[in-house]
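User: Good morning. I'm curious how WT7 would be positioned relative to this chain. Could you predict the structure with it bound?
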Amino acid sequence: MDIISSSSDYEKIYRASIENPERFWDEVARDFVWHRPWDKVLKWDFHKPELAWFLGGKLNITENILDRHLPQRANQTALIWEPNQPSEAPRHITYAELKREVCRVGNLLRKNGIRKGDRVCIYMPMVPELVYAVLGCARIGAVHSVVFAGFSSGSLIDRINDCGCRLVLTADGAFRGDKKIELKSVVDDALMNCPTVEKVIVLERTGSKPAMKAGRDSWWHEEIWDMDDHCEPEIMDSEDLLFILYTSGSTGKPKGMVHTCGGYMVYTNYTFRTVFQYQEGQVFWCTADVGWITGHSYIIYGPLSAGATTLLFEGIPSYPDFGRFWQVIERHRVNLFYTAPTAIRSLEQAPLSFVERHDLSSLKVLGTVGEPINEEAWHWYDKNIGKGNCPIVDTWWQTETGGAMISPIAGVTVTKPSYATLPLPGVQPALMDDHGKEIKGAGEGRLALKFPWPSMSRTIYGNHKRFRETYFSTFPGMYFTGDGCRRDGEGYYRITGRVDDIIIVSGHNLGTAEIESAIDEHSSVCESAVVGFPHDIKGQGVYAFVICYNKPEEEDKLRAEIRDTVSKIIGPIAKPDKIQFVSGLPKTRSGKIMRRILRKVAEGESANLGDVTTLLDPGVVEEIKRGALH
Ligand code: WT7
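Assistant: Good morning! Here's the predicted structure, ligand included:
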């Protein structure tokens, strides 16, 4: 189907997609290779909830990424890999090579007894083999569960056990700026508590020579070398699982969001081509980690299914200096660049000379994702990176949605700083007021979605009840996003941030309950409460109120220990920025912590706490106000 390329197209196609979504997606889905066409486009019921797209259709997503693009793209670069160290040579992997490598991994998995439906945990650095691993699973119908390599063993244990992974693909270590991270030893720690894992295959990346457990562990290079280049794709049903990806929830336990083959393929491909207005031959760079949904959808599946050249970057924006992103753009003549507001804000702090010494003239479109972008950062990005010539697409979406939902279409939608602008075709947002009534026209409320789209999560792995309660019970008959949102007079949407107990720190979604339970693991801690507070670079920071069994003698030492505990249990991204020791927490008579009050204190607005009359002990509030850290 033709992609929208003007604002009149947008209006026409959007309207058609809403009037008859099934006809719309039916047409989009015809662009792919199916072994058997679908019998029915959509079956849904948001009350149950039940969701299925392209029912009865048979496909393999890797055939749509690899086989479909051969032979005409055999020598086109599919993947550009830029290593952490600028002195290490980048690699260019063609579509023909990518197919070979994916097939070899597919065969390796099969040789290790992995079959359709088995779960495979991938805990790897940002190297080409990570992409081979993901697609190798998809080739044979194994369900991949990628865990961000910045998570520590506690998080890995939860994620492996929740879905019962049989095999782990990992590496000896990872390079991250000037640091070396011992990934394999994190896996070893975790596996003491993961009875379902039978095999571990270890890629050599840093040369750190980890211990290898006989019978369980083997080296990637020793296993892969004699694998065949040909691997028969497993024919999957549209609704068979493609992957599980964990995201934080309002309780301590992460939610394994389930994505299925057909709808996810159709939607990530369609939104990639539409939002970025991808043109044949362009180089696309999404700076996210493959451990997050952004990396799944817009490093791997969207761009590669569109036959694009996608860039995979192993490093970080500040190493060896703050010009690293701009150097990579220049080096690989990147055309479409997609990053997070937190990265923009941190790079904005560096002298402009880091930008100016690089030729950014290849850039055509800029994108942002993961959190609201403040107007100031938007303008900096527009002026200094886009040189006023590149449309900025501020894409709003979630792990649960699989692909971009509310977003400008590059060069088509008139942008407005800090607004994600308009819904993409097929997306039907609703603003809801506090009484659960839909707000019409301009207004502010909570964001819900009234109609399904192909890449929406089908369930939470092993817990459909939690899926229903989390997303479909707040506004019966609708999907609730957890976000607050404003709509202006032109129908433009501006996401204002989470309205639940999730905070977004440097673009990473963290559950406050999860951080609290990690803090509580410290032997001196009795109870804690975590809230977000505005942070110049991270967007939100983590503010922890902590009650200890005994009044701490050396507060800073204890703070360091608590931060370390959180880092060990969840990962460094969850470390509290501020820790205030308190003797009590503001609770209602029924024992519920009044987070509203803590949020105000953390935001530095304690003069303005609102109603505190329902508190059990209003005295603690005075103490908390006096001790606030600013
Ligand atoms: C939450 C989802 C989408 C992939 C990365 C994050 C926030 C996301 C935007 C945006 C304002 C945004 C929302 C959302 N968010 N994009 N463009 N403007 N907020 O996926 O980890 O599942 O987080 O990120 O609060 O609910 P995620």
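DSSP finds 19 helices and 30 strands in the chain. The CA atoms of residues 199 and 532 lie 39 Å apart.
Let me know if you'd like a different ligand tried.
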